Amino acid sequence: LLVDEISSTKTILIGIELDQVLNKPGSENDLILQPGDKLHIPQKMHTVQISGNVMNPLALAYTPGKKLKYYIQNSGGYASRSKKTKTFVRYPNGLTASTKSFLGIRKSPLVLPGSEIVVAAKPEKAPMSAGQWMAIGSGLASLAVSFATIANLTK
Question: What pLDDT score does 50 carry?
């Protein structure tokens, strides 16, 4: 569920869990609407959108019990510049969950009908300029001279 708070100049989308709001009025999940606010409840979708840095971004039919890896593989897999640890799922209510990693073990978020899986790309690395190479060379030459001086002094 997305809530549009409409002011005179902007629209703000807020992701909420409507069932929690309705079941526990007055709780921290509750949302107080103002005059002019609009609720937009999207139609339930039975697909999962895969976008970002995958080989073939597309929408697949939601299959109960299938995990994030299934949807990534069926979109052709990760592209060469994918940042797998920055994969996240955007749920139909606007909330997101990201892939977590601990000691090399990756835990993927749950995929629900209407979700969008987004795979981030690794940032572009700018090639080193001639000046940067010269600075590295100069630094290495200085280290070599220092080591040679220390070696001569300790003889």
Answer: 93
What is the rounded (10 degree) CA torsion for 135, 138, 139, 142? -160
Q: How far apart are CA 102 and CA 69, in angstroms?
A: 18
Q: What is the pLDDT of residues 22-62, one digit of tens each?
A: 888 788 777 777 787 777 776 778 899 999 999 999 999 99
Q: Token pair for residue 79?
A: 């592209």
CA distances from 137 to 96, 125, 142 (A): 46, 20, 9
Q: Once rounded to an integer, what is the mean pLDDT over residues 117-125?
A: 86
Residue showing tokens 């080193």: 128
Give backbone dihedrals phi and psi of 20, rounded to 5 degrees, phi first.
-70, -40
Residue that is written with structure tokens 């703000």 in the block: 12
Could you tell me what percentage of the chain is helix, strand and coil, using 3-state DSSP and rounding each to the nearest 5?
A: 25, 30, 45
What is the helix (H) or strand (E) element at residue 142, kind and residue range?
Answer: helix 130-153
